[in-house]
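User: I'm curious whether this sequence folds into something compact or stays loose and floppy. Could you predict its structure so I can see for myself?
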Amino acid sequence: MFIKRIFDLIFNLIYNLEKTFQMKQTLNLIQFACIFLFSIISFSPLSAKDKPAKEPEIGIVEHLDEYLPSDLVFSDQDNKQVNLKELINKPTVICFVYFRCPGICSPLMNGLAEVMDKTPDMVLGKDYQAITISFDPSETSDLAFKKRANYLSRMKNPVDKNGWIFLTGDSANIARATHAIGFNFKKVGNDYLHPGCIYMLSPKAKITRYLRGIYFLPFEFKLALIEASEGKSGSTINRVLQFCYNYDPQGQQYVLNVTKVTGTIIVFFVILLFISLLIRSKLKKKATK
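Assistant: Here's the prediction. I'll summarize afterward.
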């Protein structure tokens, strides 16, 4: 809606210019340039509806408004078998990690614990819950129990400990769960290359928002929980940032895509310069008559 309003204003301006300066041919070219620019925006990664033709081997593919399968079975930290979808009866934060990860998993879990602690008006276990799932099928409930106790001990505000569940599972259920969410990872040796993200789900297990990275703003976290409670989906991050940054699986961090950003800026200014030269040329010709 915002982009549409901007282009409505542009076309109204064009109409007024045409009426004032009678530059029909030039303004038609400007209209074409605006339509071309709008098309680039619509079909570029800035579009919220855009999905890549081929899923990345490592990264996130958003499945907003989709639901988790109803038959995913995992073991909780007490080694009890649970149905994932049946666990979700309130707004839920899901996080995929593997517990012995030497990379971003620990900072991601610390970031999640920190933002939950800094959102005291949304009480863990009462207003929402968190579910951490290991995507390494070799990890067991014993390790999940220890990790859960460790991260719960870092939270300063009182919480319902039952509100943060740690799960392990077999390779089949892990593969189906990660595919349903859009979490793509790759095993390299004994470790994994993977992105960092948390996922918001509604009480009916509908995916409503993706919060990427390993640190999260309390305001954005709270807003995502409120939207999840209402079943509303929303854009995950600023689409400009998503367009400008790519995930580096080797460094396990997000890095600026200099080529893409520079190319976009150059194209924009070339179009702007082209329009400016056309307008100046026509105005000079009219002034000499």
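Summary: The chain is about 45% helix and 20% strand. The domain at 59-254 is CATH 3.40.30.10 (Glutaredoxin).
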